[in-house]
Amino acid sequence: MKNKDKTPLSFRRYPSTTALQCFETAARHLSFTNAAQEMHMTQSAISKQVAQLEEMLNLSLFYRTPHRISLTPAGKTYYLEVLDILKHIEAATTSLMSNSDNSEILKIVSHPTFCARWLIPALNGFSKAHPLINFSIKELAGPFFTEDQNVDVAFLYGDGIWGGMEAIKLFDEYSVAVCSPDYLKDKAPCTSKINNFTLLQLSSRPSAWYEYFKQQDISIEGTFVGPRFDTFHTTISAALLGYGIALVPLRLVAPELQSGTLVTVWSYAAKGRGAYYLSYPLSLGRSHKVKVILEWVSTYLERTAEQHLDSMP
Q1: Spatial distance between the Cα atoms of 243 and 183, rounded to a whole number of angstroms
Q2: CA separation (Å) from 278 to 132, 178, 266, 290?
Q3: Residue 72 · residue 34 · CB < 8 Å
Q4: Residue 199: which residues within 8 A CB-CB, separation 6 or more?
Q5: Which domains does the chain carry?
Q6: pTM for the whole thing?
Q7: What is the pLDDT of residues 246-290, one digit of tens each?
Q8: Can you name the residues that pair with 263 across neighbouring β-strands?
Q9: Is 154 helix (H, G, I), strand (E, B) or coil?
């Protein structure tokens, strides 16, 4: 049986953007007076908008006393939802206003360190060559990609299998042990004396050092011990500052190896379990902007292939 009290809102009963803005501002300041100053409205106008919103919702959003206001439990919940809605409206409006009628937005997602150290250099010159395609890059919050993300192209590390996505392999991952040249002073880079070194750990790959030595048929204890970091970026930064030895993908530290600010401790490059891929939704296979980025990345890989070989230890 349907509950007559739970009838859906008609479009005419949706709250106005002005009412939501007034509520959000008052909730943030916990003051109708301060909200009025920010919104360039009178205090009574702010109070009226909020009161009408409460009447429509049939809920109290604020506790009111003569000297202050505070959010009710319902008000706290609604505030977070409204804040998210207003941010989406602002982002959509800004995006639309910042692009011409003939331009396209290429939405890209990438792992943070890969984005900063490989993708950004790879996209250098793209906007000039394709002025009608503006890319919007979002860094992947965690180590794993979820299929429900609104994205045109994703640069990912893994096995190349993501539901509903086409994946094109860019290159395998080879990781090298690197550190600051000063860190090796008075230390013999011998694996039998591994206890003399601090092995910097990546939280998302806790067994990386164990696998590095296992591939070389070297049995060493203590490969799981050492300071832990969330990203390759912070691990590389720690290595540059002399914290210890970092095990990182060669392509991500090629500039530092070429400049000498980092050096390889051992010559071995360990092949990772996964590879780096350019992936896109199957539904966008014929999209012009996806075809353009595919061609651009392919050309960049061809152009930099020799440079990568030169950086191999």
Answers
A1: 8
A2: 21, 27, 30, 10
A3: no
A4: 209, 222, 223, 225, 226, 244, 245, 247
A5: 10-97 (1.10.10.10), 104-172+275-311 (3.40.190.10), 173-271 (3.40.190.10)
A6: 0.67
A7: 999 999 999 999 999 999 999 899 999 899 999 999 988 889 999
A8: 179
A9: strand
